[in-house]
Write a structure and sequence with these properties.
The complex is a heterodimer of chains A (480) and B (176). Chain A has 20 helices and 5 strands. With 480 residues, chain A is mainly α. A 3-stranded antiparallel sheet of chain A has the order 4-3-5. Chain A has a two-stranded antiparallel sheet with strand order 1-2. In chain A, α17 runs antiparallel to α18. The longest helix of chain A is centred in the middle third of the chain and has 32 residues. Chain B has 176 residues and is mainly alpha-helical. In chain B, α1 packs antiparallel against α2 and α2 runs antiparallel to α3. Classes of the chains: A mainly alpha (480), B mainly alpha (176). The interface between A and B is large, with 44 and 32 residues.
Chain lengths: 480, 176
């Protein structure tokens, strides 16, 4: 019951991020309106410090705060992804906020609060912490999605996400309360022990499991809980969309995995079947509906739904290789999706964002480097070697084949081929269409840097994946 | 005695909860919700959780619901013309899920623990006093979730201001 320095030390990264977020809120009034960019660098400093702290704590395995919080390499791996994603989002936002006239300091504070919530999520070892982390990660997004509040689309995104999000949180909470009623504990490890001692076949466990799948399925946007994603992705400011699509998904998958593989491992045969079904419909529907999209943000939304489907395969496999492949997938997905959204942000059509696929026409002639970066991201999202997307898909499929799910892999590969159509269509439009004079390209240096880093990372992991894979593998070794 | 009281509270909670969503006038819904909150507080008393019962009434009935009523009356929300056109589908699906859930829960062993027996054993909370026990738990075992919850409230407060306050975006806002 007593607290020691270890308890504080273990949550130091979270404390740093939350403290900086509060500091940004406090100093914002003292900064002149045209120099709000300074706050972005505050955010970057927070993420840098937290990154440093997490790297130092990387290989510790420690349960603190009376079993509420677990510091382990698995969570730390996801935290590193989150820092990179949040930092890239902030860098991409700097110019974007000014262009869109939403240059408020609170924006950066909310990004940090959301990141803090996700960090709590990936390190949660108790259902209470899981839920609170999820809420702390979601509420900033409800607001960030509606940040362009003078635009109907943005407000619609915010309202839709808020109503559906709170509904799904309620369902998740109902599942958690059933688990508590059944076992008398919310601790993940204690739940697993209880499940081992329980006689098999109590149907209430299945009901609780289904409710949890609905709750988490909403957050990672798998079909049929994906309906919010396209509208929210389209309406929200683009950097927010990027962070939502990358950070929120990675953190939700981490907690999904921890709860299901660790706590509910005892009824794996039951949830496995349900998740296979979800993976199949998600891969099919995500890829097929993406074919007909004309708005690039909606297209990327359906693409992100399809990618959630592939990632669920790693969860279904659930053994060490499956978990590693899911972690690698989330890391790679972060770079390629952030990069793709980063390019979208740079296009302007007559004072507004150019977010139609047609706006990409002739981009190769206007800005060769941006077009090339987009080409790399699109290839990677399809999964064409030598990009990182290939490595990620390869590991997922290998894990599934090892687990005897060959038919699922065959289906996933077929729909990967389908996805090539809409990803490569963007490339075709960029390189083979005549440029549209109404579409301009802005290129703030921070955004260019992010694109360069993302493209380099995608290529590097694609060509020389060794260190990245080793990191993921070592992080899983201690997974309980 | 516990069983009778429990049945009464449970029945009223279910009935008023249905009233909240079935009523076409927002004020009626809010009042049904108020009655529901009071009966939920009754359930807490039944479980020897007086502190939670008091909080339930003070916070939910006293603060949140009054705020609801203010908003409803200030905005002059009209009564709904009719139900949503997917009402029938929703009703059928909802009932199906309800029946499934009831069937599952009736076989789950929850029924053996009915009526709630938690209150019969003099727990630490009963000896120490509720408020103290909750305070102790909140600041020791549940300190971390408690702090996270405080961050959530902070974010929600600032978020509400950002979404609602006039003129924070300056000139740009007049673009509409």
């Amino acid at each position: 019951m007593n607290f020691s320095v270890t308890d504080i030390g273990a949550v130091l990264p979270e404390i740093i991020v939350a403290a900086y977020a509060c500091a940004i809120l406090l100093i914002e009034p003292f900064i002149p309106k045209d120099r709000r960019n300074i706050l972005a660098f505050f955010g970057l400093a927070a993420l840098g410090l937290a990154f440093y702290a997490t790297v130092n704590l990387m290989w510790t395995d420690l349960s603190v705060m009376n079993g509420m919080f677990i510091l382990d390499p698995f969570g730390n791996f996801f935290k590193l992804i989150l820092y990179v994603a949040a930092a890239m989002t902030i860098l991409l936002s700097i110019g974007y906020l000014k262009r869109e006239g939403i240059d408020l300091g609170e924006y950066y504070a909310f990004i940090l609060f959301a990141a803090c919530g996700m960090m709590v999520m990936v390190s949660a070892s108790d259902l209470i912490t899981v839920f609170l982390g999820l809420e702390l990660a979601s509420i900033p997004f409800y607001i960030l999605a509606g940040f362009k509040r003078f635009e109907a689309k943005s407000l619609e995104a915010s309202a839709k996400y808020f109503i559906l999000g709170s509904f799904s949180s309620g369902i998740l909470l109902f599942g958690i309360s059933l688990l508590y009623g059944l076992s008398g504990t919310t601790n993940l490890e204690a739940l697993a022990q209880h499940l081992r001692g329980e006689e098999i076949g109590n149907p209430a466990w299945i009901l609780a499991m289904i409710l949890l799948i609905v709750g988490f399925g909403f957050k990672v946007a798998v079909v049929p809980f994906h309906m919010w994603a396209p509208d929210v992705y389209e309406g929200a400011p683009t950097p927010v969309t990027a962070f939502l699509s990358v950070g929120s998904k990675a953190a939700s998958f981490a907690v999904f995995l921890r709860v299901f593989v660790e706590a509910l491992g005892g009824i794996q045969s039951d949830w496995r079947l349900l998740l296979i079904l979800l993976a199949v419909v998600t891969i099919v529907l995500g890829n097929v509906v993406a074919l007909v999209q004309t708005n690039i943000k909606r297209m990327l939304a359906y693409s992100s739904i399809a990618h959630a489907g592939y990632a669920v395969i790693g969860l279904i496999v659930g053994d060490r290789l499956g978990i590693v492949s899911l972690m690698v997938y989330m890391g790679v997905y972060a770079f390629m999706t952030l990069g793709a959204f980063g390019v979208v942000m740079l296009l302007r059509r007559g004072g507004v964002e150019g977010d139609e696929i047609a706006d990409f026409a002739g981009l190769a002639r206007k800005n060769r480097l941006a077009a090339f970066a987009m080409l790399i991201f699109m290839f990677s999202l399809t999964g064409i070697p030598p990009t990182a997307g290939f490595i990620a898909k390869f590991y997922i499929f290998m894990a599934a084949v090892n687990a005897g799910l060959t038919w699922l892999v065959v289906l996933a590969v077929i729909f990967t081929a389908v996805s090539a159509y809409f990803y490569l269509k963007v490339v075709m439009v960029m390189y083979m269409k005549e440029p549209d004079e109404n579409v301009q390209m802005v290129a703030p240096s921070a955004a260019v840097m992010v694109l360069a880093v993302a493209a380099a990372a995608v290529l590097l992991i694609g060509i020389y994946p060794g260190p990245f894979l080793d990191l993921a593998q070592n992080a899983v070794l201690q997974f309980r | 005695m516990t069983l009778i009281l429990f049945s009464y509270f449970a029945a009223v909670i279910v009935a008023t909860a249905i009233g909240v969503i079935a009523s076409r006038k927002p004020v009626n819904s809010a009042l049904a919700l108020l009655v529901m909150f009071f009966h939920v507080a009754g359930l807490f008393v039944l479980l020897d959780a007086e502190f939670i019962a008091a909080v339930q009434i003070i916070v939910y009935a006293g603060a949140i619901l009054v705020l609801y009523l203010f908003v409803v009356m200030l905005l002059n929300v009209r009564a709904e013309e009719g139900y949503h056109r997917q009402f029938v589908v929703g009703l059928v699906v909802g009932l199906a899920i309800l029946i499934e859930a009831v069937l599952i829960l009736s076989r789950s062993g929850f029924a053996d623990r009915f009526p709630p027996t938690v209150s019969l054993a003099p727990s630490a909370a009963a000896i120490q006093g509720n408020t103290e026990a909750i305070g102790r738990a909140l600041y020791t075992t549940y300190l971390f979730p408690f702090e996270v919850a405080s961050l959530i409230l902070l974010v929600a407060m600032i978020g509400a201001i950002i979404l609602a306050k006039k003129g924070i975006f300056g000139k740009e806002e007049r673009r509409k």
